[in-house]
Amino acid sequence: MNFFNLPKIELHCHLDGSVRAETIIDIAKKDGITISSFNIDVIKNQITAPLECTSLDDYLKSFSLPNLVMQSKENIKRITFELYEDASKENVKYMEVRFAPLLHTAKGLTIDEIIGSVIEGIKSAENIYDIKGNVILSCMRTMSSANALEVIEKGKKFLGKGVVAVDLAGPEKAGFAAEYVDAIKVARDYGYRVTIHAGETGIGKNVLDAVELLGAERIGHGVYINDCIEAYNIVKAKNIVLEICPTSNVQTKAVQEYKSHPIHKFYNDGIKITINTDNRTVSDTDMTKECQSIYDTFNITQEDYKQIYLNSVNATFTTEDVKEWLKDKLTESIKNNKPTC
């Protein structure tokens, strides 16, 4: 199956995990930022996690360097634009990019300026390429609920203007959801949609908590519902969408290898799954590679892909007009015989 030619949708992609190595070097030179090397291979090695990562915490080490060059409005806008440019060139038609604004305040940027710069980058790409996008604001679990509430309050003015949802991300510990109940309730009351990283590191009950305590509509990863029947059942019963990131899951050891990933089991059992990159640079991947890995491992059919694509359309935090546009993209592609098996 020619996945490159197929229209694609990405719902789980981190901005700071998807920065071009060339851009890091260029910005470092321009802004006088000290980095270990200007050699492209050295930098790529520092920002790309190997398949043999030992854990999620090990995987997250690759994010420190990109954040050094994401401390000005110009750089954040550029990096966002380049992400959407790269995605559009492999026929991604819609992407919800997520990032944590508080990671970009080191040189004095306000949260408003940071969010505005990401939205500007998306709009610039939309004006040139056949792609549309929105923003998910990530609140880091290494920070307090007060920090999360600060992001939610400052992001409120951008709802309907590029921002669509809130997320909790970062290292995952058991029972994390309880700390953020009040903050996420405020977000829901304001009109934010909710997606939560959970069940990525062996704690399936976190998914149950994310749904029951936080009102999550989508779950980032969710692999470990396989080991928690209560979480599995609520995800299935409530049609909670899983944002599956196959390569990242292998790297973080959520699964040991592609063939042991439960994604196909979930799909066959009627759980709503979507395919995503998580981090294009850190995982050295794109949507074409992710789809190909699932096809090679589980031999999914064109009809399977069509259903997964429609799952993604229906799970987007966007307008009905954009959803219809995305459905038309798939119909047009099939009609023109672009997907080939």
From TrEMBL:
It catalyses: 2'-deoxyadenosine + H2O + H(+) = 2'-deoxyinosine + NH4(+); adenosine + H2O + H(+) = inosine + NH4(+). InterPro entries: A_deaminase, A_deaminase_dom, Ado/ade_deaminase, Metal_Hydrolase. It holds the Pfam family A_deaminase. Zn(2+) binds at H12, H14, H197, D278. Its cofactor is Zn(2+). The active site is at E200. Keywords: Hydrolase, Metal-binding, Nucleotide metabolism, Zinc. One of its GO terms (cellular component) is cytosol. One of its GO terms (biological process) is adenosine catabolic process. It is an enzyme of class 3 (hydrolase). GO terms for molecular function: 2'-deoxyadenosine deaminase activity; adenosine deaminase activity; zinc ion binding. The record marks H221 as: Important for catalytic activity. Substrate binds at H14, D16, G170. Binds 1 zinc ion per subunit. CDD domains: ADA. Residues 7-332 form the Adenosine deaminase domain. Its EC number is 3.5.4.4. Belongs to the metallo-dependent hydrolases superfamily. Adenosine and AMP deaminases family. Adenosine deaminase subfamily. HAMAP family: A_deaminase. Catalyzes the hydrolytic deamination of adenosine and 2-deoxyadenosine. NCBIfam families: aden_deam. This is Adenosine deaminase.
